[in-house]
Structures are given as structure tokens and as C-alpha cells.
Amino acid sequence: MGRVFVSLIVREARLLCRRPAELANPLVFFAIVIALFPLAIGPQTSLLQSLSPGLIWMAALLAVLLSLDDLFRSDFEDGSLEQWVLSCHPLSVLALAKVAAHWLFSGLALVVIAPVLALMLGLPGRCLPVLLGSLLLGTPVLSLLGAVGAALTVGLKRGGVLLALLILPLYIPVLILGSGALQANLQGLPVAGHLLWLASLAVLAVTLTPFAIAAGLRISVGE
Amino acid sequence: MNWTWFHKLGSPKWFYEISGRLLPGLSIAAAVLLVVGTLWGLAFAPPDYQQGNSFRIIYIHVPAAFLAQSIYVMLAATGIVGLVWKMKLADVALQQAAPIGAWMTAIALITGSIWGRPTWGTYWVWDARLTSMLILLFLYFGVIALGQAISNRDSAAKACAVLAIVGVVNIPIIKYSVDWWNTLHQPATFSIVEKPAMPAEMWLPLLVMVLGFYCFFAAVLLVRMRLDVLHREARSSWVKALVAARVGEGR
User: Fold this and answer.
1) Which of A55, A66, B105, B151 sits at 20 to 30 Å (Cα–Cα) from A122?
2) Could you give the ipTM of this predicted complex?
């Protein structure tokens, strides 16, 4: 079981490293969206600073959503998904490995470049630990929830907009708690409550969503 | 306990017969309850001491909001039945109930904002309850959109079922986080006026209206399900026999 999990992650890592452009695109998207906000609302530093928690989280959420659109697509097209469904290992564990590999590359990269963009928006340096902590806890939830939608829409020709429609309402708690933590930190308030809630959401997502992803994959493959 | 009736529900033909017998009673009950409740609530219930007559929209708003929430729970319940027992009628019920739920949510939102104008002085505030109702509407849109995007009926129903179940697990989390967001971010500029304990002349018509809305929902759902069952089973012998009999009567 554990061996399959690891070998699947290694396979995904190898695949992702061979197509670096696919990894880079969501990150570039993240940076561009962040750059658009000051252009839209004006360059006043104080305004940008007070809005920055929400802006960073909105951009991160959209970037994760964008990167998830073709999470299962190539596996669906070349028939790997069918092999997964037929294999003797539980589909939910395989799906979890797939999402974990995806998060290790795209989610972590997002967390790494977020501080730079946050500083550009005028977020003070003392807020960076909370920014990193909230993103580290929040982005796995975004990836896992998004994978449910990706599994349900993988067989559809134009699943992108539909994926956003299905998944964005489910992202609301993460958005509220993540940007809430940053906002509280910015105002000098305690953030432990927000981060603990994010952590419990992450635990809940890791334990429950693999089953929903597996059910979604079965439906899409069986069609 | 005898579960035969439950398994029988899986048969479209049996459902069509039973629902045909239930439908007149339900429709009459819905019509009577709605007429009585509307007249009672709009004409005979006493005006509110604070809000005057504007509170009477409660007789539409509250039943619609009740239904909006319970229909989503029903979607998830039928989803579980459909996934576990592979019951086709549960699939039919799920897909036919979703648009009704979306309409009820829309009615609750619209009446709420009309009511908000005289009470709070504005049509919309980012209040926790309003926001979570709006999110519920988006969740309904998601289920409807997914059901329409997948062309295969069985897969569409299963996918909707999974989405509805994921949604129902998420609804308490969303509700809680929105409440929290509201208390943290939004100073209570407009708070929903604390409802005084209502006298019986006020809540009795409300109860009648709630029952009427539920009967109305049941009747509309049955009509929609019957149509969909006929559509799905159009090639089966019992539908052909039914149509032949109807055509024969017509002559």
C-alpha cells in the first residue's frame, strides 16, 4: 500500500518535471492577478496593505482552481484512470497520492512565491509567518476539494467554467479563515483560532475528500 | 419492519401509479392551505407593533427559506439512496427537486431583500444569513449545471449525488465560517430586528403557509418526476400501453 503510494507520487513528480511549463503557468497567473489589483484599485499603499490579505487569498484560490482543471485529464485520456479503477488498491488512496503530488509541486510553489508578492502589496514582514502558515494549511484543502470537482468533470469537453461553478462555493470557508487569519495578524490580534480551524479543515479534507474523488472518478470513467 | 414498499418504489411503473393516486390529494391540500394561509396572514393577522404591515411578507419568505434548506438536505438524502441502492427513482427525484430548490432560494432572497428595504433601509446587506442563502443558491446552480453538462442520464445523476453529498457536508462549515466572518468583519450596522415572541394569531397562519409550501413542493415534485419517468421509460411496454389507453379514451 505504502509502496504504491510512494511510487505513484514519484511517477507524478517525474511527469510534472518533464512539463515544467504546466507547473509555471498557475504561478505566473498568480503573479499577474496580484499585479492587476493595484492597477484596478489604485496604488495607495495604505489601501493596498489593508486589502492585501483578501487579495492574496483570492489570487491563490483562483490559481489553484486553474491548475486543477487538467489534474486528471491526461490520465483520463491515456487510459491510466481505467487501470486505477481496475487495480486491486483502493482508488481513494491512489487519488490521494495524485492530489498530494500535485500539491507538492503547484501548491508548495505557490506558498513559496506568495511572500514576495505579499511584500509587494505592502504586507508588513511580521505577517509573513502567518501568511505562510495559513497558505500551507489552506492550499491542501483547496487542492483536495478542487480534485472532487475535477474528478466529476474530467470526462466533459469544456469542464473549466463548470469546475469553477461547482467548487468556488465550497472554497468559501478556506477563504474566510485564511484571509481572516492574515487580517487579524495585520491588526495585531491573535490568530491561533483561525489557524487551528484551517488545520481541522485540512484534516477533514484529507480524510473525507479521497472517497468523494474516488466516487467521482468511477462515475467519469464508467461513462 | 416490512421494506417491500421501499423496494417497490424502485419500479417506475409502480411509482407512476401511486403518485397518480397521491397527486390530487396533495394538490388540493396545497391549494387549500396556501389560500387559507395567504388570506389569514395578509388580511386577518394583526400588524406588527414595530414593522406595521410590512412584516406580512414573512408568510412567503419564511416558508420559502425553510424549503430552500430542506430541499438541499433532501437532494443529499436521495443522492445517498441513489448511490447505495442504485434506485433510479432517487436519481429522478434528485434532478427534479434541484430546480425547485433553486427557485425557493431565489424567492427567499428576493422577498428578504424587499422586506429589508422598509426594515433596514436597504435592499442588501452582507449579513451572515443573507450571505449563506446566496451561497446556497450557488450550490444549487452547481448541481443543476453539472446535471445538464453530463449527457448520460445515469452518470449525471450519480455525479449530482456526489456533489450534493459533498455540499451537505460543507453547508454547516460554510454556515459557521460565514457567521464568524460576519461577526469579525462586519460591525452590526443593520442587525435583523430581534423577533418578538409572536402571538398565536401571527404564527398560526405562518404554520399553515409552511405546510402549504411543503404540500406544494411535494405536488410539483411529483408532477415533474412523473413527466421525467415517462420520458425515461418512453420505450417500455407499460408506457406504450398507457399512451395507447389514453389515446383510446380520447377517441
Assistant:
1) A66
2) 0.87
Domain assignment of residue B219, yes or no: yes
- How near does any CA of chain B get to the CA of A120, in Å? 24
Element (H, E) at B55: none
Question: What pTM did the predictor assign?
Answer: 0.88
Q: What is the pLDDT of residues B56-82, one digit of tens each?
A: 888 899 899 989 989 999 999 999 998
Residue B153 counted as domain residue: yes
Q: Transcribe B58-86 into DSSP letters.
A: HHHHHHHHHHHHHHHHHHHHHHHHHHHH-
Q: Where are the domains of chain A?
A: 2-222
| Owning domain of residue B213 | 27-189+200-250
Interior/surface letters B54-89, b for 16+ CB within 10 angstroms, e for the rest: ebbbbbbbbbbbbbbbebbebbbbbbebbbeeebbb
What is the C-alpha to C-alpha distance for residues A124 and B16, in angstroms, rounded to an integer? 66
Q: What are the pLDDT digits (tens) for A6-26?
A: 998 999 888 888 888 888 888
Residue A182, CB half-sphere, CA atoms under 13 Å: how many?
A: 31
The amino acid sitting at A122 is G
Give CA–CA dist B8/A82, Å, rounded. 34
Residue entry with cell 453547508? B171
Task: Specify the number of domains making up chain B.
Answer: 1
The answer to whether B163 contacts chain A (CB < 8 Å) is yes
- Pairwise CB contact (< 8 Å): B184 & A173: no
- Residue A155 touches partner B, C-beta closer than 8 Å: yes
